[in-house]
UniProtKB/TrEMBL annotation, chain A:
<protein>
    <submittedName>
        <fullName>ABC transporter ATP-binding protein</fullName>
    </submittedName>
</protein>
<dbReference type="InterPro" id="IPR027417">
    <property type="entry name" value="P-loop_NTPase"/>
</dbReference>
<feature type="domain" description="ABC transporter">
    <location>
        <begin position="12"/>
        <end position="253"/>
    </location>
</feature>
<dbReference type="GO" id="GO:0016887">
    <property type="term" value="F:ATP hydrolysis activity"/>
</dbReference>
<keyword id="KW-0547">Nucleotide-binding</keyword>
Automatic annotation (TrEMBL), chain B:
<dbReference type="GO" id="GO:0016887">
    <property type="term" value="F:ATP hydrolysis activity"/>
</dbReference>
<dbReference type="InterPro" id="IPR003593">
    <property type="entry name" value="AAA+_ATPase"/>
</dbReference>
<dbReference type="InterPro" id="IPR027417">
    <property type="entry name" value="P-loop_NTPase"/>
</dbReference>
<keyword id="KW-0997">Cell inner membrane</keyword>
<keyword id="KW-1003">Cell membrane</keyword>
Automatic annotation (TrEMBL), chain C:
<dbReference type="GO" id="GO:0055085">
    <property type="term" value="P:transmembrane transport"/>
</dbReference>
<feature type="transmembrane region" description="Helical">
    <location>
        <begin position="78"/>
        <end position="111"/>
    </location>
</feature>
<comment type="similarity">
    <text>Belongs to the binding-protein-dependent transport system permease family.</text>
</comment>
<keyword id="KW-1133">Transmembrane helix</keyword>
<keyword id="KW-0472">Membrane</keyword>
Automatic annotation (TrEMBL), chain D:
<dbReference type="InterPro" id="IPR045621">
    <property type="entry name" value="BPD_transp_1_N"/>
</dbReference>
<dbReference type="InterPro" id="IPR000515">
    <property type="entry name" value="MetI-like"/>
</dbReference>
<keyword id="KW-0812">Transmembrane</keyword>
<keyword id="KW-0813">Transport</keyword>
<dbReference type="GO" id="GO:0055085">
    <property type="term" value="P:transmembrane transport"/>
</dbReference>
């Protein structure tokens, strides 16, 4: 299988303004410290790590919301590492993102129908209304929701709108950044099942960022474990769970409280 | 005898729908009881009612909350406040917002001891040092003079735990105390709380949405749906075989990496409908 | 049922209709002033100077609200004064709003050097005392309606720019802006189609507030005798005259003052009312 | 280190701002059509007057050169000579400054007290009619500017119930033993309470007119800030410790709520000082603002420039002080 993403020595640093000296440049804060990995077409890859691991930064670099400071990101053969916004725009249809907080990522003053339709209009799709209807159908929302505002929906419903917006563009790749962390377990299960179904039906490539290994276990074939901006483990999910190699992965796994009073949790 | 005893507690939004529907539960001295439910189920509301910190927009419409045998709801406000301050404490959810940014750590631990319990300042400060050592904070002397922003999130959570145990309360309400933390830190903090609870023999009301956490720290639990207790069980019995269909579905929806295909099962619509009907029936019964 | 939101809405509704009603009435008066006004507002009659309003002993019939020291009818002068007040409010308010909001939106959303330049200008503008600045400008430009409008725009654009800039910055940090980028929207498109609708309620409130301020600025300039041609009736001019004779003829000050007060209040309440009514999040 | 960096950065931007003000005030008066000399001279001046004045101010030179001459003078404390009084501008301006400063500070104190009490009362009685009444009063006070409040006060307390003076700074017939122009301050120092009362009675109305809008802003912002703070976890935690409402508001919430209010109050205080221009006119109060309007009417160019620069220095100074105060009160910056 060909690789959709090839990431080589990816580095990203930000200026640390809190420690800027009186004169001269602020010291750089290394967020990503040289990552190498690939995402094959059709794969479902989990990216896991604690807070400060750089997983969200990595996600935003993949869809070029952030510009890396070193290394390269190749998307389907094209080097997008430093591609200017104007040249990036036609490519953007092909990699989409679903955000963690649907309340903030859906424009509060636009109706759901417009939120889903707008990206398609930008990319010159025809028959947009029919496509909006189909996208709503795909994520299991009734057609009437097109006329509602985001604040009129529940958390799980909003997240479905986020998914509908992403899949409506028929992208090759979707990045899901902690999309169930704000939801209750019952909506969590529903959204995950939906995503699993869509990925299979539409043949999508998915990168799923989460702090929750249990969710990754369910959804992803391969898992990348990040710790303080570096990859500590990158393996098939089943292997990673049965025989974790990195000390941090082991620590993560052992810390998870299973719903089972007999679990040894030392 | 149970130290905390809630009987038929009903709370509603002023002029609005009920938030708690005749909730009854007991916490024995030294026992840890989990309060579980999805958001909006009313689990935090129970903790707030016990501690007398219900928001101004809600009102208690009936029932009693007996703390050490005394019905808190029957006391005048000032007396109730003093009594709660002297016998109960809160471990809050978010360590980043639960410490006053403009006051030193020391004062925030000792204030209750000095102002409410009338301790001498020196004795209170000695107690604070002792507690910080107990929650494994290095250099307690220095930390007492720090402001919150100078400490990490994990340190702040430890300080809040120390502060909760300061007056040797008989009951502590822990309101999702680890939800904001990474799993690895969560484990340390849960172990710390459990250890302190056992050593001090404190009763603990543990509010959480995570059944995994409940199975680690609690001896009994109450499952809530729409402000109603649908199941009240010992932890071992519950995880072996939940009695109510809704709690069984909740358990099935909980992620479990050891058995991925059997976890994360959505709660079936039929179960939701059934439990809603149950709530409606209880409401009718309550009014009829 | 005692629902907090519905109570807020009822109060908002009342003030919206009251203020819109008052301003609507002023518009009608402005258009039909010559037919409504009982007297010629410029006609002087020294024998009828300082007549009190109709309910006070010594009043002349026909002069409902009395006369000023030159014997001019107070009521007619107030009615004619509406014309200047409203044209300044609407024209100056709108232009100031467009200029200031555009600059603020650009500074807050585009950031970078655009923000640097605009912010520096805002800082410099904030270091001028606005009243003195406007008096100075009128002195330089010469009196007249156009000068007043220009002075208001030149001085008050920062009111919009400052607030809109801050708001646009806050909105720019929201994920819906990032998601517009992911969808492939350009910067200008994002600014106009995504950010602007979210900043609009703030702009509307500022706009109506500014209309009230414009009326006041005109009054202040009339008060220091620098507004439009001196004998045209303006509320500020009447107030200036009323101030000098307040101990002899309070009505010359009171009636234009009350009119001005209500108008300014109506403009600001209109803005608050509109914001509450058209906010989809509140609705 | 952080504090020092913030301070130095602010100092630089302040300097840039002041230069900007100087440039603008200089060119606005000259670039716009109209002969500045003709503007400066009273009507009836002769050709010779015009020529003499032109040479005196170096107005025959190109504009940038003129600016440099003027700016060079300003840096050495030479603001030129007033056309109308033939006295040095600096002396005139500094002579009036105390009157305006006393008025502004008095207004600020009144605004803080009124606004603070309103905010605390509104928070203590939140959800009741008292809070509703405070909100309505705040809304009214906020939407009507100082000029109108001044007129309302003149009518109410100068005409209807004439209890306060509505004109001047002090009763003209009084003998003034003062050596400085800080009358309010000096009368206190000299224990001349009779004079002090007279001065206060003159200042009260203009100061109140200036204070009302600012009081409303403080009341509204601080109350909102307090209300938000009251929902924070550390306040809730304090309640569970057994503390009552007053303690929680004053000790836990107030200090943290004051910080966000403070920065806005700084800007608003400069608006208040700007408001003295028209309020002094309204109450015939002999301060800087009243002098400024006279200067404009008399086309006294050097005096106008001097006053505008002085106002700009005060405004930027106030903002600088507020920023430093904010840093000093904020433990995050203080102990960084």
């Amino acid at each position: 299988m060909a690789d959709l993403y090839t990431i080589t020595d990816l580095r990203l640093s930000l200026a640390d303004m809190t420690r800027k000296p009186l004169l001269g440049a602020a010291p750089r804060l290394e967020i990503l410290k040289g990552l190498d990995f690939t995402i094959p077409k059709g794969a479902v890859v989990g990216i896991v790590g604690g807070s400060g691991s750089g997983k969200s930064t990595l996600g935003r670099a993949l869809v070029r919301l952030l510009e890396p400071s070193g290394g390269s990101i190749r998307f389907d053969g094209t080097d997008i590492t430093h591609l200017p916004e104007a040249e990036l725009r036609p490519l953007r249809r092909r990699f989409q993102m679903i955000f963690q907080d649907p309340m903030s990522s859906l424009n509060p003053r636009h109706r759901v129908g417009r939120i889903i339709a707008e990206p398609m209009r930008l990319h010159g799709f025809d028959g947009v209304d029919a496509r909006v209807a189909r996208a709503l159908d795909h994520v299991g929302l009734p057609q009437g929701f097109a006329g509602r505002y985001p604040h009129e929906l529940s958390g799980g419903q909003r997240q479905r709108v986020g998914i509908a917006r992403a899949i409506a563009l028929a992208p090759d790749f979707i990045l899901a950044d902690e999309i169930v962390s704000g939801l209750d377990v019952s909506s969590q299960a529903q959204v995950l099942n939906l995503l699993e179904q869509l990925v299979a039906d539409l043949g999508l490539t998915l990168a799923f960022i989460s702090h929750d290994l249990s969710v990754i276990r369910r959804l992803c074939q391969r898992t990348i474990v990040l710790y303080q901006g570096a990859i500590v483990e990158d393996r098939a999910t089943a292997d990673l769970f049965s025989d974790p190699k990195a000390a941090y992965t082991r620590e993560l796994l052992e810390a998870i409280p299973l719903p089972d009073p007999d679990q040894v949790w030392a | 005898m149970s130290f905390l005893s809630i009987r038929e507690l009903s709370v509603r939004l002023k002029g609005g729908p009920p938030l708690l529907r005749r909730v009854s539960l007991d916490v024995a001295a030294g026992e840890v009881r989990g309060l579980v439910g999805e958001s909006g189920a009313g689990k935090s509301m129970i903790g707030k009612a016990v501690l007398g910190i219900l928001p101004g927009s809600v009102e208690v419409t009936g029932g009693e909350i007996r703390l050490d045998g005394v019905d808190l709801l029957a006391l005048p406000p000032a007396e109730r406040r003093r009594r709660i301050g002297a016998t109960a404490a809160l471990i809050p959810q978010d360590p980043l917002t639960a410490l006053n940014p403009s006051r030193r750590i020391g004062g925030q631990i000792t204030d209750r001891l000095v102002d409410i319990l009338g301790w001498e300042r020196g004795r209170a400060e000695a107690r604070a040092r002792e507690l910080l050592a107990e929650v494994q904070i290095p250099e307690p002397e220095r930390v007492l003079r720090n402001y919150p922003h100078e400490l990490s999130g994990g340190m702040r959570q430890r300080i809040l735990i120390a502060s909760a145990f300061a007056a040797e309360p008989k009951l502590i309400v822990a309101d999702e105390p680890t939800t904001a933390l990474d799993v690895t830190v969560q484990k340390q903090i849960l172990k710390l709380i459990a250890g302190m609870q056992a050593r001090h023999g404190t009763a603990l009301l543990f509010v959480t949405h995570d059944l995994g956490v409940v199975s680690k720290v609690c001896q009994s639990l109450s499952v809530l749906y729409a402000g109603m207790v649908v199941e009240d069980a010992r932890v071992r019995d519950f995880f072996a075989a939940p009695k109510h269909a809704y709690s069984a579905a909740l358990l099935a929806a909980t992620p479990k990496y050891t058995d991925p295909m059997a976890s994360l099962t959505p709660v079936p619509d039929a179960v939701i409908e059934a439990v809603r009907a149950e709530v409606a029936a209880a409401d009718r019964g309550g009014h009829g | 049922m005692l629902d907090g939101r519905s109570m807020v809405r009822r109060r908002a509704g009342a003030r919206l209709w009251l203020s819109a009603g008052w301003l609507g009435l002023l518009c009608v008066i402005a258009v039909f002033a010559p037919w409504i006004a009982p007297k010629d507002p410029l006609a002087q009659d020294l024998f009828l100077g300082r007549l009190p309003p109709f309910w006070v002993a010594g009043a002349e019939p026909g002069y409902l609200l009395g006369t000023d020291s030159l014997g001019r009818d107070v009521l007619s002068r107030i009615l004619y004064g509406v014309r200047v007040a409203l044209s300044v409010a609407l024209v100056a308010g709108t232009i100031t709003c467009i200029v200031g909001a555009t600059l603020g939106l650009m500074a807050g959303f585009l950031r970078g050097w655009v923000d640097l330049v605009i912010s520096r200008f805002i800082d410099i503008w904030m270091a001028f005392p606005p009243v003195l600045f406007s008096i100075l400008l009128i002195a330089v430009l010469g009196p007249g309606l156009f000068s007043i409008i220009l002075a208001i725009v030149v001085i008050d654009w920062t009111r919009f720019a400052r607030v809109v800039r801050a708001e646009a910055m806050a909105q720019g940090a929201m994920d819906y802006v990032a998601s517009a980028r992911v969808a492939g929207r350009g910067r200008l498109g994002t600014m106009v189609r995504e950010i602007l609708p979210n900043v609009l309620p703030t702009i509307v409130v500022l706009l109506t507030l500014e209309m009230g301020i414009a009326v006041i600025v005109e009054a202040i300039l009339s008060f220091v005798n620098l507004s439009i041609a001196t004998d045209d009736p303006t509320w500020g001019g009447m107030i200036a005259e009323g101030r000098t004779s307040v101990h002899q003829a309070w009505w010359v000050l009171v009636f234009p003052l009350v009119t001005l007060f209500l108008t300014v209040l109506a403009f600001s309440q209109l803005g608050e009312g509109l914001k509450d009514r058209f906010d989809p999040v509140l609705r | 280190m952080q504090l020092l960096r913030v301070f130095l950065l602010r100092l630089v931007t302040t300097a840039v701002t002041l230069v900007g003000v100087a440039v603008i005030v200089f060119f606005v008066i000259r670039v716009v059509p109209g002969n500045p000399i003709a503007m400066m001279l009273p009507p009836g001046a002769t050709e010779a007057d015009v020529a003499a004045l032109t040479a005196l101010y170096g107005l025959d030179k190109p504009l940038p050169a003129q600016f440099l001459i003027w700016a060079g003078g300003v840096l050495q404390g030479d603001f030129g000579t007033s056309i109308t009084t033939r006295q040095p501008v600096l002396g005139l301006v500094l002579g009036r400054l105390p009157a305006t400063l006393e008025l502004s500070v008095m207004a600020l104190v009144m605004a803080v007290v009124i606004g603070g009490v309103a905010a605390l009362t509104g928070t203590r009685r939140r959800g009741t009619r008292v809070e509703g009444a405070i909100d309505i009063a705040n809304g009214m006070a906020l939407s009507v500017p100082d000029f109108l409040w001044g007129l309302v006060l003149i009518l109410l307390f100068g005409v209807l119930v004439p209890v306060f003076h509505i004109s001047g700074r002090v009763t003209p017939s009084l003998e003034l033993p003062f050596t400085t122009n800080f009358y309010l301050f000096e009368s206190l120092i000299r224990l001349r309470f009779d004079l002090w009362l007279d001065i206060v009675s003159h200042m009260l109305m203009p100061a109140l007119a200036l204070a009302v809008p600012l009081a409303a802003i403080i009341g509204q912002l601080l109350k909102q800030s307090l209300k938000e703070t009251m929902h924070l976890d550390y306040v809730t935690l304090a309640r569970t410790k057994g503390y009552g409402e007053n303690h929680v508001i004053l000790r836990e919430a107030l200090r943290n709520a004051v910080l966000p209010t403070l920065t806005l109050v700084g800007v608003q205080f400069t608006f208040l000082i700007g408001g003295t221009v028209i309020i002094e006119r309204l109450f015939s109060y002999e301060g800087l603002g009243n002098m400024a309007i006279d200067a404009v009417i008399n086309r006294d160019l050097p005096l106008i420039q001097g006053i505008v620069i002085l106002f700009a220095v005060i405004f930027t100074g106030v903002n600088l002080i507020v920023d430093l105060l904010y840093a000093a009160l904020n433990p995050r910056l203080r102990h960084a």
